[in-house]
């Protein structure tokens, strides 16, 4: 208890700061809001029965050759497809996979995705060898109610990401209406996410997109207090906007990962060879000054696992945050920090996590990240806290720790989650029909 009390005292002196410049407001009736946009459940039965529906899913799954190593995104798309099938629609799925550079590449074919989706649906999902043109029109025209078709990778055409009108018109041509269920690409104004809404009406959200908005936008605009945010990752530069947005709404913010050391340097501490963004040290100082003025709490690590090299088998030791040896770098939180975080989060009712606490890909430096994942999982499983994992590496950490199923919500979008939390308008949502 003495160690823990001492840690809290050090934390209060070293790591209590305030929120800084207010972020753009999240509007309950704004264009990113679930309440403002139509979903598939707002459509009457006769608007779906026999209709040719283009569904933008996100089946951009990781592959080992032709083997899918994580089918989460495909599984997440199934409820929307099942609903449309049940209403007698003819369903055609489109998506991208990877980043093809110059036209079709076999390694980026959606063949494995169509096969896996068929297994999950219990029926054949035909892969069409293109996403526009006569072959697509013929396949859609020959399909019956309840059939599911998948188009080939939309990014085999460079016009997809450029949202070129002629390509958009060809993509939309065989269909009657559009459903966007791809939250992971909703922050992109691409042909298959935003462009087709100009040609297909109604354009509405699917279940997955609606759920993402409900949790992420809902937590920010109307989350139960006290609220906390966990912001990790390597660089302040990539998280400064989301930090501002979350600090504006949350009573407590935990900072972890490599960005910690830019803040510690800003506070005048030596950080050895730890990652520091020197161009953002002044930014961190401004954050600290404004945070102190506004009275919100930022928690920085109390103790840090340091290494003599960025390597899985490097020599390691755990040191106080203000005693990092010269020539050593911080790569994870120490155990006292995890204990302090547990105490700080114990009374929070809404918690958003975006980014890891350390280099969790290396076993020697995964305890801080897995430790805070366990804290959140326990709070949502055994208590009444709403825990939201905001995409990217945070999702990977939850999956690897085995606690993903205990979280309230795990986002399927990395960049989209970040931009929504920052308060930005998502083009793929803004383009949908208003209620």
Describe the structure concisely.
By secondary structure, this protein is an alpha/beta fold. The protein has 15 helices and 17 strands.
Strand tally: 17
The average pLDDT score comes to 89
Radius of gyration: 23 Å
Q: Structural class, from secondary structure content?
A: alpha/beta
User: What is the oligomeric state here?
Assistant: single chain
Strand order of the largest sheet: 5-6-4-1-7-8
From the N-terminal CA to the C-terminal CA, the straight-line distance is: 56 Å
Q: Main sheet, how many strands, which sense, barrel?
A: 6 strands, parallel
- Tertiary shape: elongated
How much of the sequence lies in strands comes to 5-15%
Poorly predicted regions are: 1-32
Helical amount: 25-40%
Helical region count?
Answer: 15
Structure notes:
Helices cover 36% and strands 15% of the residues. With 435 residues, the protein is α/β, with parallel strands linked by helices. β9, α8 and β10 form a beta-alpha-beta unit. The radius of gyration is 23 Å and the shape is elongated. The model is unreliable at 1-32 (pLDDT under 50).
What order do the helices and strands come in, and which of them pair?
Layout: H1 2-15, E1 52-56, E2 63-64, E3 67-68, H2 72-86, E4 90-94, H3 111-121, E5 125-127, H4 134-142, E6 148-150, H5 159-162, H6 165-172, E7 177-180, E8 203-205, H7 207-222, E9 227-231, H8 240-249, E10 252-255, H9 260-266, H10 281-294, E11 297-299, E12 303-307, E13 316-320, E14 329-333, H11 335-345, E15 350-354, H12 367-382, E16 386-389, H13 393-401, E17 409-410, H14 415-422, H15 427-430
Parallel strand pairs: 1-4, 1-7, 4-6, 5-6, 7-8, 9-10, 9-15, 10-11, 15-16, 16-17
Antiparallel strand pairs: 2-3, 12-13, 12-14
């Amino acid at each position: 208890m003495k160690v823990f009390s001492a840690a809290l005292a050090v934390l209060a002196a070293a790591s209590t700061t305030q929120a800084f410049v207010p972020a753009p407001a999240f509007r309950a009736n704004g264009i990113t809001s679930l309440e403002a946009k139509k979903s598939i459940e707002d459509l009457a039965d006769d608007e779906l029965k026999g209709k040719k529906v283009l569904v933008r899913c996100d089946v951009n799954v990781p592959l080992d050759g032709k083997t899918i190593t994580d089918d989460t995104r495909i599984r997440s798309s199934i409820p929307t497809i099942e609903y449309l099938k049940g209403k007698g629609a003819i369903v055609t799925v489109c998506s991208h996979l990877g980043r093809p550079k110059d036209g079709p590449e076999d390694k980026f074919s959606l063949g494995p995705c169509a096969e896996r989706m068929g297994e999950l649906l219990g029926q054949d999902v035909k892969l069409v060898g293109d996403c526009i043109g006569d072959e697509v029109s013929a396949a859609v025209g020959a399909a019956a109610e309840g059939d599911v078709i998948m188009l080939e990778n939309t990014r085999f055409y460079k016009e997809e990401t450029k949202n070129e009108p002629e390509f958009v018109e060809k993509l939309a041509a065989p269909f009657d209406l559009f459903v966007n269920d791809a939250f992971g690409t909703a922050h992109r104004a691409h042909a298959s996410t935003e462009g087709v809404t100009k040609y297909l009406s109604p354009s509405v959200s699917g279940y997955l997109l609606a759920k993402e908005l409900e949790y992420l936008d809902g937590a920010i605009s109307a989350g139960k207090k006290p609220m906390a945010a966990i912001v990790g990752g390597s660089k302040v530069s990539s998280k400064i906007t989301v930090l501002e947005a979350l600090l504006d709404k949350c009573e407590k913010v935990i900072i972890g990962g490599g960005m910690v050391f830019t803040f510690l340097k800003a506070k005048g501490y030596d950080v050895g060879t730890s990652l520091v963004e020197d161009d953002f040290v002044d930014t961190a100082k401004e954050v600290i000054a404004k945070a102190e003025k506004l009275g919100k709490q930022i928690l920085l690590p109390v103790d840090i696992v340091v290494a003599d090299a960025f390597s899985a088998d490097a020599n390691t030791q755990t040191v106080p945050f203000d005693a990092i040896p010269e020539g050593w770098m911080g790569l994870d939180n120490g155990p006292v920090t995890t204990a302090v975080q547990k105490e700080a989060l114990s009374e929070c009712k809404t918690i958003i996590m975006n980014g890891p606490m350390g280099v969790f890909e290396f076993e020697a430096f995964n305890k801080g990240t897995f430790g805070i994942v366990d804290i959140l999982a326990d709070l949502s499983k055994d208590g009444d806290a709403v825990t939201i994992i905001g995409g990217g590496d945070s999702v990977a950490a939850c999956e690897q720790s085995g606690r993903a199923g205990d979280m309230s919500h795990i986002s399927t979008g990395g960049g989209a989650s970040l931009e929504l939390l920052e308060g930005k308008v998502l083009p793929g949502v803004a383009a949908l029909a208003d209620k």
